[in-house]
DNA sequence: ATTCACATTGTGTACGTAAACATTTTTATA
DNA sequence: TATAAAAATGTTTACGTACACAATGTGAAT
């Protein structure tokens, strides 16, 4: 029977005007201690839930969100993040959300600083950030905090950033999962953990996966498997395939390769060219380049970081925070999705609507 | 620059009143051909998107939704569906959605009819249905169509129901996936597909999984694996373990068991009691009973039907349809999530909020 | 031409909140 | 005490839509 309580009702119960109730609820000040108490007393008795619909309609202002993430032209991994952001945007545009995009070179501090500057220039009410560069991200987060701009981060977890929300994957656990899967599908022998032309800045990020991987093997598979880390040339250089071949010669009993980034397709391509078919390959992310090899069997498993959903949730959370003033999760770990040839389509199909 | 167009603007452009615009947009009739044309012309030129916020606030009526699904007391599988429904409800209750629950015995037509009758009695504006009983569901859907009550179904796909939306899993593909996983982790030998005390009504439902499973093995694993179907006693009967032991004697080279329902824990328990440790076990759903065995390793893999998300989406779609009059997907297949010991937590953890 | 029935069109109010604005009360100052 | 300034409180309007209601216009029957 509990009818919905409105500000009007509270005003009546407390014997004050709606204006006063409004001032108390939003503590805008300019209220006598007496009135304050009267309203607070009522608020404690009843369970007032503001009507978010009415609130949104009333204060129908426009919110600007700046999305700051690497350029998908430079790394296709980010394509799906952008898709997720765009989908969230199209679902929320009616709430007066506009998004400006600022794409940076994921390995260039200068590029980041430039784009970050532009993002701030646009006078955003909220910022969505993929903090691939640690130090630059920290500096930027400081400015956001100074300027009181809500910051939501995704993909790369950096504890000290202390954003309003982080959305991503538990990387340590992700590494453990990869190891579990590898020990399930690979024959006993050597497992290579590959790092491909990585920059120093990313080392913490990648490190958590490797640590998790090794931890699992130590716990559960040390009798059958030996883990070795190899550093390969950047795929953009001609030496890439050679450096892989070299690694395989050094470790002749290699039965599996774990690629900690979305670049498994580069390894897959080289393995095909080298005619190696007895090596299990586990990598990350449903980018087109990987899917081809997952379908033809060169890549056996992919762990999906759900970066489309990361982008989607990032924008959704900012909308909830800005528009609806709803509480949002501080830390949102997404599922560690395992993708094979047979469940791939269930992860990438979109549905018709009516 | 494209300012948002309101009904007011359309009225001005077409030289009519807002009332007329309203009548045209909602084709409530009582409009002259002349006025109709004037408004339509404007509507074709501009891109009018109604403000759903304002619409919702204005027609702030209450919607009743009836949820009709099996009793979780009789089958724990349904617990998570209910959780999902409740979560969606708590997120949408501010939009004036109230839900009445009607739990039936999943194997009793009488029970279903009784609860379905109650559900209709409650005068719902929308219905969420888990159509476990085929014929009864068809009859019920007919009544819903007659009474023009929107019907959203989940979990069990029945084509002839033709609901507003179906949310669930592609069962054929689910079977294929199970087979792919089984051939990855099991040693060559016999694979058993088990049916546990199933009712006739569910045969179509379960059949799709088995067909998919066999199809995959035929295509990709026929040289190493032989698939056999076994029918076991209902776990409630004392003969369950014996019937399993009997099946394993009949098929002495059994290396894997595929349980097409959420009852893998029953098999796991019996396997433990029988001391069988070399048989891989793949089942469905993250119910507590299964998780225990997944954690201790008796169950190797679970395929998650995401029934919490099914319930959540079911209510969300009904809300979108009723409250926001948004288009919703006709057919929403959810991902075929693969769950292991190491990614289990990423599927069941909930987050703190701020 | 007058009246009535009916079709069409226009106007006003409600939804619940936020925020601008107007009014009253209190306090400080001369 | 008178008066201005400041503080507190109350009132009104806007947000965009839906819907009830009022006001026109049209044509037919008397």
UniProtKB/TrEMBL annotation, chains A, B:
It holds the Pfam family LacI. PANTHER family: LACI-FAMILY TRANSCRIPTION REGULATOR, LACI-RELATED TRANSCRIPTIONAL REPRESSOR. SMART domains: HTH_LACI. It comes from Larkinella arboricola. Keywords: DNA-binding, Transcription, Transcription regulation. Gene3D superfamilies: 3.40.50.2300, lambda repressor-like DNA-binding domains. InterPro entries: HTH_LacI, Lambda_DNA-bd_dom_sf, Peripla_BP_I, SBP_2_dom. It comes from the Bacteria. Residues 5-59 form the HTH lacI-type domain. GO terms for molecular function: DNA-binding transcription factor activity; transcription cis-regulatory region binding. This is LacI family transcriptional regulator.
